[in-house]
Amino acid sequence: MIAAMIEEATIRQALRQIVDPEIDCNIVDLGLIYGIAIDSAKVTVTMTLTTPGCPMHESIAWGVKCALLNLEGVEDVEVNVVWDPPWTPARMSDYGRERTGVC
């Protein structure tokens, strides 16, 4: 795979490896990923966490970076953690709701 062929679906699949350990669900299905930008071999992920005081902030951001750097064609990753808009359970996928028991 060359850099120009990196697809958002591939990135999202890699990000499903990253689990919020306090909730036991991956960050994609929790709705924590707000945006993915691909510029050649660089991927920028804009994301949030369930709470601003999340003690796993650095660990989750590091996990995102490592998971994406392991993809063929990705040479640089930037992770932007934002708090606006704030996360709500409404952002969760059906799988995330089922996994966590949120209705």
User: How would you classify the quaternary structure?
Assistant: single chain
Summarize the helix and strand pattern as letters.
HEEEEHEH
Structural class of the secondary structure composition? Answer: alpha+beta
Strand order of the largest sheet: 3-4-5
CATH architectural category: 2-Layer Sandwich
Helix content: 25-40%
Whole-number count of domains:
1
Would you identify the CATH H-level superfamily? Fe-S cluster assembly (FSCA)
Largest sheet composition: 3 strands, mixed
Low-confidence stretches: none
Mean pLDDT: 92
Give Rg in angstroms: 13 Å
Per the CATH scheme, the topology name is GMP Synthetase, Chain A, domain 3
Tally of strands: 5
CATH class: Alpha Beta
Taken from the alpha-carbon principal axes, the silhouette is globular
Features:
about 100 residues, alpha+beta, two-stranded antiparallel sheet, about 20% strand
SSE arrangement:
Blueprint (H helix, E strand, L loop, with lengths): L7 H8 L3 E2 L4 E2 L6 E7 L2 E6 L9 H13 L6 E6 L12 H7 L3
Parallel strand pairs: 4-5
Antiparallel strand pairs: 1-2, 3-4
Describe the protein in words.
- There is one protein chain.
- By secondary structure, this protein is of the alpha+beta class.
- It has a single domain (3-95), classed as GMP Synthetase, Chain A, domain 3 (2-Layer Sandwich).
- The chain contains 3 helices and 5 strands.
- It has helices at 8-15, 57-69, 94-100; strands spanning 19-20, 25-26, 33-39, 42-47, 76-81.
- The strands form 2 sheets. Strands 3-4-5 form a 3-stranded mixed beta sheet, covered by helices on one side.
- Strand 1 and strand 2 (25-26) form a beta hairpin.
- The longest helix has 13 residues, at 57-69.
- It is globular and about 40 Å long.
- The protein starts with 7 loop residues before the first helix and ends with a helix.
- The mean pLDDT is 92.
